[in-house]
Amino acid sequence: MAEDATVRMRGATLRFGDRQLWAGLNLDVARGEFLAVLGPNGSGKTSLVKVLLGLQSLSSGMVEVCGQTPRRGSTHIGYVPQQKAFERDVALRGRDLVRLGLDGHRWGTGLPSRNRRQQVERAIAAVGATGYADAPLGRLSGGEQQRLRIAQALLGDPSVLLCDEPLLSLDLSHQQATSALIDARRREAETSVVFVTHEINPILGMVDRVLYLAGSKWAIGSPDEIMTSETLSALYETEVDVLRVRGRIVVIGAPDSAHGDADGSHHHHPVGDDHDHDSAGPRSWV
Amino acid sequence: MGLGVYLQLPAVQHALIAATLVAIISGLIGPFVVTRRAAFAVHGVSELSFTGAVAGLVWADNAVLGALLGSLVVATGIGLLGVREGERDAAIGVTLAFGLGVGVFLLSRYHASARAAQNILFGQIFGVSNAQLVLLLMVAGVVLFAILVLYRPLLFASVDPEVAAARGVPVKLAGLVFLFVLAVTVTEAAQIVGTLLVLSLAITPAAAAHRLSSRPAVVAGLSVMFALLAGDGGLLVSLTRLNTTNVPASAFITAISFAMYLLARLVGPGLVRRRRHVQG
User: Fold this and answer.
1) pLDDT tens digits, residue range A43-72?
2) Helices (H), B110-215
3) Which residue in B167, B172, B274, B275 has the most chain A C-beta atoms within 10 A of its own C-beta, making it the best mutation to test that interface?
4) ipTM score assigned to the predicted complex
């Protein structure tokens, strides 16, 4: 698996001053693997995204994306940022947003190009956004905007699709549609998916492995291995109960304000089919 | 005198050329000002170019040079103080307040002409000298070049900074360079419509254009067109009224600019909604 890995981390440690986010992180993400990164607010999920994008360096340890140290503007990674609605009056159509993913970093205005137009057209069609690609971006729904962001991220045919809370503030049907789109892509093109989320619920059926970050500790393994009372209690250093109620996973007692649930619990979909990546068993540093 | 006679005069020709150049560069940066919510930065830089202009008058008898240098200093100040978006408005406010105080102080030391100060504030379009015109031409060339080179990364950084940074766009640097371009443009516009009325060329045409289209290239084109209509149109109207009134051209420029904005607000929503319907 290691030779085939798109993302490799060895002894990766990140700290800001006195605050240690995570330490000694070892990670291999295989081609076509769907890795969910979970954890409470402040556990360093977004910092992990920045490290992979080359916007943040490690305090110590090693990180590689497709065999290279991450750098800004790498075409190995397609990035879908936190779902944040565009301004209503932004002077951009859906297709303009997608196109920026292709040549927005280049100097100049860019000459009209048939090749580029077709590339953008294909990317838009691949996410099923052709119907509203010419509409003002600010007037589209959150789900429609997110589809265009995925088209933008996939335009350069990246080896890794890095999604930072892409489902935030989407309604349930758009959450399902967006995650199904990402899942389909990694199956067709063997794109690795690193999916940062505070809520595993909408994607549990697709996830191969979970990386759980909590208070400078981490654990990695299949959802069945990680989403247990034992593992989460060890991570949080307090008694956490993981229950399966009517096919759902409910976590009770995790000290996590980020969930916003009144009872501090969250719900998960039933676990889907198993994937062979999971056979290695849980490895953790707790 | 009729309009045809006025157009023979070098002073009027100079004014027309100056208004055209200023309208083009103001109209071009306008959409970025609107998208980046930098209207207050425009206001801050333009008011502070007053301080620079007075300083230029006091020390070198050259208001334009003073205003240009002053605006660059101010842009640097705003850029350094307001790195985070949340701090920017406060940083501009702080710089603006102090800078205007300095301007008032300098003005009290300058006794040559009260008229000069009024020209700085409200614009004196008919006093454009050959040397000023050459300087304006050079500045317009530099601004045009900078905007064309920066166009895509600046657009990317303005609408979608996170993804732009991930794709390798130097977001902060682009913002700082834009601030310089903005400062120079605003200073030049200030000579035509005056520091107090700069917003009518640097923001209003772009704001109107935003109401009518969501295609970046169309918005840029409309913005330049509206700025030209307001700048040159206002100038020509003021010429036809010279016999009866003594109203400065800037009054007409702002009026035309505002009228176009109102019109765009009226027809804009219908246009955009229909397009959404047709495409969706």
Assistant:
1) 889 999 999 999 999 999 999 999 999 998
2) 114-122, 130-159, 161-166, 171-193, 199-202, 204-212
3) B167
4) 0.85
